[in-house]
Specification:
- This protein is α+β, with helices and mostly antiparallel strands.
- Helix content is 35%, strand content 13%.
- Strand 3 and strand 4 form a beta hairpin.
- It is globular.
- The protein starts with a strand and ends with a helix.
Length: 182
């Protein structure tokens, strides 16, 4: 990965009730790397080097603990910096879509490979060296977009199946109650 990106660690900082930057931490994301709450500025920008300010398209990789995931920082989020829980991966060549890199890093095979190289006993951690050495398959951009579209459709299918199951359960429970009341 080192030939297609730069990788830097997040910053260590103390949050406050008032700030002009969001201090992104792993707790802000679910297992799939989706933001779970609104982001509120909680870190003063004074003393934070500009190189640590996140840019649209930066890929955040949670490298510490059992919850390893990748997420793309989007332009609609407030100004932010990543905590030390993350590596910030910034693509330097235009041959890869950031969302494809996040998908690749989140793929079960990649996750298994990375977890197999994690260090630490109490809190497992994936090192920058391991991440830099990761070999990434880089298909043509149109193939990357196709993969992302299929992945999005699969996620939508799963959500629909779950919703159908929830509605079916309500239907059955209602019918059972109706049978008792007769």
């Amino acid at each position: 990965m080192s030939n297609i990106s730069t990788i830097q660690t997040g910053v260590f900082a103390k949050t406050t009730n008032d700030g002009d930057l969001v201090y992104l931490q792993a707790k802000h994301f679910d297992e799939a790397g989706n933001l779970q709450q609104e982001l509120h500025p909680d870190l003063p920008s004074a003393g934070i080097n500009d190189k640590h300010h996140l840019r649209a398209g930066d890929v955040l990789f949670a490298a510490k603990g059992s919850k390893n995931f990748a997420a793309v920082y989007e332009a609609e989020y407030p100004d932010a910096v990543a905590s030390t829980s993350f590596f910030v991966i910034r693509l330097v060549l235009g041959q890869m879509i950031p969302d494809y890199l996040a998908w690749f890093l989140n793929h079960p095979n990649t996750q298994q490979q990375l977890k197999g190289q994690a260090i630490g006993t109490n809190i497992a951690s994936i090192s920058k060296t391991v991440l830099e050495a990761l070999e990434i398959a880089i298909p043509a951009i149109y193939v990357q977009r196709t993969i992302l579209k299929i992945h999005a459709l699969r996620q939508h299918e799963r959500a629909l199946k779950q919703r159908i199951e929830e509605l079916r359960e309500v239907q059955i429970q209602t019918q059972l109650l109706n049978a008792i009341e007769r």
